Amino acid sequence: MKRTGTASAAASKRARADQTPRRQAVMKVVEASSLKEEELSLLKSVAPVALGSNKEDRHPIQHQVVDWVSKTLEGTLESRKNALREACAAADQAEKNMVELNKQKETAEKELEDLVKVHATATTEAKLAQDKKVASTADHKEPLSVYKKQDAVCGQARKVLKEATDLCDDFCSLVAGAESKVKPILARVIRQLRDGDGSGALAATLESVFASPVEQYTEFQSSAIREASHLLQRKADAAAAELATACKALEVCDTALSALRECEKSAAAADEAEVQASAAVDRSAVAVKTFTAEIKAAQKAVEKAKSVSELCEKIVAEAEAAGTTFEALKEQTQKGLVSDESLGSAPRLPQAEPVPV
Q1: What pLDDT shows up at residue 20?
Q2: What is the average per-residue pLDDT within 193-214?
Q3: Which contiguous run of DSSP H or E holds residue 306?
Q4: In this predicted structure, which of 136-150, 198-212, 269-283, 322-336 has the lowest mean pLDDT?
Q5: pTM score > 0.70 for this model?
Q6: What is the pLDDT of residues 290-321, one digit of tens each?
């Protein structure tokens, strides 16, 4: 017959063996707490012994250790719950961001679709305008040739007028004695006068006039100067009249080309519209591409946020299970270990890696 004491000791030994994985589960959560390193080291060294003792056999210090473990578990659970709330909020926000980006992308795609249609229309109109311009140019081939010739006449008339006007101004300066380049100016004046009818004698007279000082001019010489000035001015006036006549003729030619001018303006405007439409399509395409990339990044953010949220759920469940197990260890007596079921919950410890909180 076995002794009663021997049987009791064996039962106590088996009970303590059952406690070992439970204490490890509790300490696993404790080790993930926010305690300082030295505090955690101390608690790890004394908590297993305190939790392995029966409630009625614990030393007052061991009761304090148990309370310390209890507060640590509560703090860790609350911290993990906060982390879970934050993770869930982050996951919700990430999903909202992705939904908003999808809406923006849809809007950008619709805009791109519309702009592509606008560009197609602008391209067609530009081609039609160019074709019309080409046809109008062919229809106005003769007036266009006349216009170019008359434009050249106007250009030459402007040149002649400028030369005549400049020569009048230079001669006036020469007469007033304010011009130092006497010979070049006089040569131009004489050449101009000799080209006119009946001005050869006057040109010869002027060659001797400017050989004398101004104060020694005779009445004949002064008269020759006035006559020369008058003739030069007449030539300038004639050049101005010729330019006016040429410009009027050019206007007539331009009026005949009014239809062609309108075609040219329309073609230029259509080309510019096509360029602007093409640029708008390019910008819209870039926007769609950007939204696509942002949505891809947002999807990764959602997946990551959900993963973090799931992990937080696991570690919260781990902390809750550890709390239930701790209560069983805390209330154990010589009669045996209080079961998790008697505490109103029977969770199974999740197999999650410890995550410091």
Answers
A1: 80
A2: 66
A3: helix 258-330
A4: 198-212
A5: no
A6: 999 999 999 999 999 999 999 999 999 999 99
**Cβ pair 337, 18 in contact under 8 A:** yes
Tokens 């004489």 belong to: 190
Query: Are 343 and 324 in contact, with CB atoms under 8 Å apart?
Result: yes
Report how far residue 245's alpha carbon sits from residue 240's, in angstroms, rounded to the nearest whole number: 9
The rounded distance, in Å, linking the Cα atoms of 340 and 328 is 6
> Please, which residues have CB within 8 angstroms of residue 348's CB and are 6 or more apart in sequence?
321
Give the single-character DSSP code of 180: S
| Biggest alpha carbon–alpha carbon distance for the chain | 173
Indicate the residue type of 157: A
- Burial letters 136-166, b for 16+ CB under 10 A, else e: beeebeebbebbeebbebbeebbebbeebbe
| Stronger pLDDT, 15 or 169, i.e. the higher one | 169
